[in-house]
Write a structure and sequence with these properties.
The protein is mainly α. It has seven helices and no strands. α1 packs parallel to α3, α3 packs antiparallel against α4 and α3 packs parallel to α6.
Length: 179
Amino acid sequence: MVSLFRLVVLALVIYLVLVKYSATVVIPLIVFLFLLDWVDGYLAAQDEKAPPRYGAYLDIAIDRIIEYAFWLLFTLLSILPWFVIAIVFARNTVADYLVTRKGMTFSSMKSGFGRIASSHIIRGAYAVLKAVNFAYLALIVVLGLPPSGWPILVAYGLTTVVVAFSLIRGAAEIHEALR
């Protein structure tokens, strides 16, 4: 239920960004959406203890839908260049395929690199970075700031950090899945 509720909140956030609704509503909703991700992840971790782990896989699928929706939104609004979404899609597709093909979850990673990249601290930091990045990009749109000058440079900096973080975590997942 939490996973499906996250999709409803996502749809609302995207709509509010597109109509350039108040930043005082949009930004807290984005934060709420990522807090729901934490709740959903917690519930999915409880589900991991009993096969067939549908909750864990559904949580990951909803995470991807939310992430792709934001990347797509800001790409279509010409805030981010197209290659950003291409990198994220490629990383997620390869890593998710290899990890799920092997039947792995974050908690089943055994190598040092895999355990670090899948730790609660790193996953939490990544979620916070994504939330800050998407909230900042939404702020640019909602406030009607031009996609140039210092606001976009900050957005590019945040996006670069998020994508780099994603690639490092993806490398750990791929490494683990190919062991």
